[in-house]
Fold:
Amino acid sequence: MKRVAILISGGGSNMVRLLESMTGDHPARPVLVASNDPTAGGLAKATSMGVETVAIDHRAHRDRESFERALLKALDAAQPDIICLAGFMRILTPDFIDRYAGRILNIHPSLLPLYPGLNTHARAIAAGDGFGGATVHLVTPELDAGPILGQARVPIHPGDDPETLAKRVLAVEHRLYPAVLRRFAQGDLARQDLSDA
Ligand code: GAR
Structure:
């Protein structure tokens, strides 16, 4: 059974879907939810789902390295095999990523390699794209550039704004991330795209 830690910064709707998925014959179980923001709504949801949580406030640390040392201490204690970033909005240093190389997954709200970074939906709309979507990828030191494990796309309709598109994309994220995690936990690195999106 693989041990999964999830890192969040906000409401944690993807986290909830990942936690809900890890039951029955699933090859993984959640061992920790960690947030850099003590007020992240996802922390209470994880607690209510019976998962241990920890908040490590990045603002209480003088630099990124000090914050990451504290985060790594909590993570190492939980001994995760896999770390899922789920709306985790801090950039991780190469040292941190090295420690769990090949075992950190991220979900990003665009069809990578299009639109790494922030404001993905506004950029897709401004470019006149016909499709938006989400990508689950392995985390490497280069931002949002690691090997792609799965993608789901949605149409962009005339009149969409970043909020309407974000809502449509989030709905497919909720199916994509659990599907990719299940396969990844089984040791299957083949790319998995959601075909009906
Ligand atoms: C999701 O749309 C996720 O793709 C995005 O943040 C949202 C988190 O929602 N992640 C990033 O932008 C990472 N750079 P959630 O907290 O409800 O899961």
The chain has a mean pLDDT of 97. The CA atoms of residues 13 and 69 lie 27 Å apart. The longest helix spans residues 162-185.
